[in-house]
Amino acid sequence: MKKIVFIAGSLRKGSYNTQLMEMAAKKLSSAFICSFIDYSDIPLLNQDKEFPAPDSVARIRDEIRSADALWIGSPEYNHSYSAVLKNLIDWLSRPVVPGDYSTAAGRGRLVALSSVAGSSGGSFSLSKLRELLEMLSCTIIEEQTLVALGSRFGSEELVLTAEEEKSLSAECDALANALA
Ligand SMILES: Cc1cc2nc3c(=O)[nH]c(=O)nc-3n(C[C@H](O)[C@H](O)[C@H](O)COP(=O)(O)O)c2cc1C
User: Which ligand 1 atom sits closest to the C-alpha of 9?
Assistant: First the structure.
């Protein structure tokens, strides 16, 4: 079975972005192994401490390498993606062997994107994330799911509208087709 690794751009317990990806994982789990990574222990990237990479980074790189596709659920912070997500992607963009970028776990990957955010629904965040991932030669699924929280902000459980549910299903189908 092929594997999809889900990455939340929010470290928050109860994150809406994690909740949305859990819904996607539920839809995809009959055909794919779905797992979520916890990268809350990786340090800020420091080129003085890259080679060898810290154990926490090596572990995350192994998990990312084991995936056939990645799904990134990004919140929007000030019209961009979060700093923790950028730090993770920076680590994944770097080689394990100095100078040999074919050893970088995060380059050239198949990626699906979603965002739950305030009023914008994360459209600014995802357009910037697309630009970043394209720079890393990733193939990005065209379909994406945007959820503008509106009056749902503050509720514990994320409940999707019919339109958002449709968008998520279409994105899951597109990713499944790309992995077929
Ligand atoms: C620092 C910060 C900046 C934010 N900026 C935006 C923004 O520019 N646009 C937006 O729609 N929501 C913005 N938000 C709201 C978050 O995107 C929203 O709370 C989202 O649900 C957080 O994701 P999470 O539930 O997965 O933690 C911001 C939140 C924070 C903490």
Answer: 26
